[in-house]
Write a structure and sequence with these properties.
Blueprint: E1 3-4, H1 10-15, E2 22-24, H2 31-40, E3 43-49, H3 56-66, H4 77-84, E4 98-104, H5 106-112, H6 114-131, E5 138-142
Parallel strand pairs: 1-2, 2-5, 3-4, 4-5
Helix pairs in contact: 4-6, 5-6
Length: 143
C-alpha cells in the first residue's frame, strides 16, 4: 500500500526535505489545490483523470491524452515506463523544480482492477526512483 505524504505535507515535498515518491494525495487537499501549489513552486503538473477507467486498456488509453505523451507511446506497460523515464516530451522552455503527476480517482481504478493498479503503481515508483537524484525529480500523488 502506498504511503501517505509524511508531515509536514505538500510544502515539504515541493520545497524541502520530503523526498520524491509515490504517495497518497493528502486527504485535506483537493487535486486543484495541489496542482496550484505545485505550479506556484515551479513544478510541472499533469493530472491523470481515471474516472471511468476500469482496466489496463482504458488506463493506457487515458495516459497519452491526459499526460500528453508523444505519438510513439505504444499503449503498453513498457511504453509507459519509457515515457516516464524520458520526460523530454514534457519539458518546456526553462527548468522545472520537479514533475508532479496527480492520478485522480485512483481508488476506483484500484478497486476495479487491482492487479493493473499495482503494475501501474510499480511503474510509477520505478520512474520516481529514476528521477530521484536528478535536478528535477518526479513525484506521483494517488487520489
Amino acid at each position: 500500500m502506498t504511503a501517505h505524504l509524511p508531515a509536514p505535507g505538500l510544502s515539504a515535498l515541493l520545497n524541502g526535505p520530503t523526498p520524491p515518491g509515490v504517495y497518497r494525495l493528502p486527504p485535506t487537499q483537493t487535486p486543484d489545490q495541489v496542482a496550484a501549489s505545485a505550479a506556484e513552486a515551479d513544478w510541472r503538473v499533469a493530472r491523470l483523470r481515471l474516472d471511468g477507467v476500469r482496466d489496463k486498456a482504458a488506463f493506457l488509453d487515458r495516459c497519452p491524452v491526459d499526460l500528453e505523451f508523444p505519438d510513439w507511446f505504444g499503449r503498453n506497460w513498457d511504453a509507459l515506463a519509457d515515457c516516464l523515464t524520458d520526460l523530454s516530451w514534457w519539458r518546456e522552455a526553462g527548468k522545472s523544480r520537479g514533475y508532479l503527476v496527480i492520478a485522480q480517482d485512483w481508488a476506483a481504478f484500484d478497486k476495479a482492477a487491482p492487479d493493473d493498479a499495482r503494475t501501474a503503481e510499480a511503474i510509477f515508483q520505478e520512474a520516481v526512483d529514476f528521477w530521484a537524484d536528478r535536478e528535477s525529480p518526479l513525484t506521483v500523488l494517488l487520489d
